[in-house]
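REVIEWER CHECKLIST
Item 1: Sequence provided? yes
Item 2: Single chain? yes
Item 3: Sequence as submitted:
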Amino acid sequence: MARQGIVMKIEKKTMIVMTDEGDFLQLPLPKAVPALGATIQLDLQVTKKYSRPALVAALLVFVLALSLFNPLLTSQSVASVTFDLPLALELEVDGDNRVTAIKAKDAAAQSLTEQMNLKGQDIYRAANQVVQAACNNLTLGGDGEPAFVVSVMPLKDRRKMKLDRQQLRDHLLQELEQQQFEGYLVVQDTGERSTRLPVEALNNPDETVMERHFPGMWCRVGKGHGDAKGVRLEKGGETKEPEAGRQERGPHHMRHGRGRMSNPVTPP
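Item 4: Structure as written out by the authors:
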């Protein structure tokens, strides 16, 4: 009677196979060497049953081999990078900043991710690929200036997250400039239970809208903004206005992100 088995271990001249009845057999290695984990037809004329310790050892070897071939099987997502605009796409990453899961949340994201192989890639490289694909394939901005809004969120213990918002922002900014993108870039930190800003709020963004919703986490990108890029992101989420971009202010000028007058007027 024909039986089937799964190849659990491959040696120089023999292989260990687990039968469909749970027995472990040592068989001669055929000329066409099967892949580890493959299901094969068994020749029961040559059988050598393995003891229980050998069974456990073979299982461990099999699991180890699978993890070596695909390390993402044992990876655990610790953070997510979500593109809120101009497409809805979430990339989960592990403690080594490798993409472990891809969640397309709209038609644009679904279409783009089908053309890219993002799983297993470094998140900074994967995010650059998303930006490049969006710039080349999507209509950005509508009636107003376009914006890329990206949220970084820990999924579990923040201490396990090695993803750096500032570094991600620098990678995206460089890629957007290479794509000759003109508009806004936001890279924001969000908590585990935070509520993201509705997309409708950014239909016609300007500097006031950006600073109100994303204080210290946005910048201008593109021709005409020079090195300053409007309000510039600094380490720690601070905003800093470049020297070259400063102008003389009147008494009623409100500084971005500070919520106070630079020269308040004393009431009579």
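Item 5: Key structural point noted by reviewer: The first strand starts at residue 3 and ends at 10.
Item 6: Recommendation: ____
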